[in-house]
Amino acid sequence: MEETLQSHFHNWFGVLFFIALYSLVLLFIPFYKKMDTKPRGTYIAFVIAFAIEMHGIPFSMNIIAWIIGKNLPEGVLWGHTLFSSIGFLGMYINIGLAIIALVLILNGWYNIYKKYWSKESGKGELVTTGVYRFIRHPQYTGLLLLSLGMLIEWATLPMLIMFPIMVFMYTRLAKREEKDMIKEFGISYTQYMGRTKMFIPFII
Predict the structure, then answer these.
(1) Which of 60, 85, 116, 195 might form a disulfide with 157, Cβ 3.0–4.6 angstroms?
(2) Helices 157-185 and 187-195: crossing angle, nearest 10°?
(3) Helix (H, G, I), strand (E, B), or coil: what is residue 203?
(4) What is the DSSP string of 171-189?
């Protein structure tokens, strides 16, 4: 068992691979203003924390073990978060959330690319099709689901601190963007807001 857990660490190729893999989704999210860089940077920092502590070194465990004088058990700020109660189910939850997140991000990008960004040729329009029928910010929802999945699989102290900050930053960013959309589309967008939730269908 101990050998299996230790095999996670000092795999620096794995660190770089997961950082690159999870960062690729940013190519499909339309960050188009300077104010978008802080939420994006926070997400990248979250991914780096996940990759390093899962495949590089158990940084959180080492720091806390040094402070309290003993090692933390598996699943407490290092290792598979839910391992002691449900085994590797946390890993499968992460995979499931990642699949949902990719569907949201890619479907959102496709609809934005085909309709809203076509305004450069004089044909841009308010996007309410595809996943936008159900939520107004599917790509931000997808990004947060990716992050939640990582947290469920391998929660560490930096990730626990950064996740609520990231939720706050993307919520604020979404609200700022909606002010721009109201200026651009007027009552059409306010009506769209009235019938479509921001992040989770039928809830919020």
Answers:
(1) 60
(2) 140
(3) coil
(4) HHHHHHHHHHHHHHHTHHH
